Amino acid sequence: MNGELNAGDLVLSKSGRDKGAILLVIEVKNDRATVVDGKTRKIGKEKKKNLKHLEIFIPLADTDLAERIKKGIPTKNESIRKRIGELSKKIREE
Q1: 24-57: buried (b, 16+ CB within 10 Å) or exposed (e) per residue?
Q2: Do 91 and 58 form a contact (C-beta atoms < 8 A)?
Q3: 45 is in which domain, residue-wise?
Q4: pLDDT band at 52; cut points 50, 70, 90
Q5: What's the pLDDT score for residue 1?
Q6: Which of 18, 34, 49, 77 lies in disulfide reach of 27, CB 3.0 to 4.6 Å?
Q7: Is residue 53 part of a domain?
Q8: How many whole angstroms separate alpha carbon 59 and alpha carbon 66?
Q9: Do residues 84 and 24 touch, judged by C-beta distance below 8 A?
Q10: Do the Cβ atoms of 33 and 51 come closer than 8 Å?
Q11: What are phi and psi of 37, to 5 degrees?
Q12: pLDDT tens-place string over residues 5-44
């Protein structure tokens, strides 16, 4: 992993069943990050991943969305998928 991982980062999974998936970090505790993607890892079914299995894709991409999920503010999985798609497309265009 490159750099410090924070809530709101978009990361790339480097191992596991979700290898290659782009995920949103909603919380970092000790050596684990809690991630969602709105598709297979939905709100309420978050995944905890070891930090060494994640690579930062876009640092601090959406801290507001991550904070809303962490606080339990109602958020649709569709909005997570849409935001990840927008950010991924933007970075690929650059």
Answers
A1: bbbbbeeeebbbbbbeebebeebbebeeebbebb
A2: yes
A3: 10-93
A4: very high
A5: 43
A6: 34
A7: yes
A8: 12
A9: yes
A10: yes
A11: -135, -5
A12: 999 999 999 999 999 999 999 999 999 999 999 999 999 9
The predicted structure's pLDDT at residue 63: 87
Cβ–Cβ < 8 Å for 85, 32:
no
Q: φ and ψ at 2, to 5 degrees?
A: -100, 125
Identify whether 1 is part of a domain.
no
Q: Is residue 2 part of a domain?
A: no
- In-domain check, residue 4: no
Cα four-point dihedral sign 47, 48, 50, 54: positive
Q: Please report the pLDDT score of residue 56 as a whole number.
A: 93
The tally of domains found in the chain comes to 1
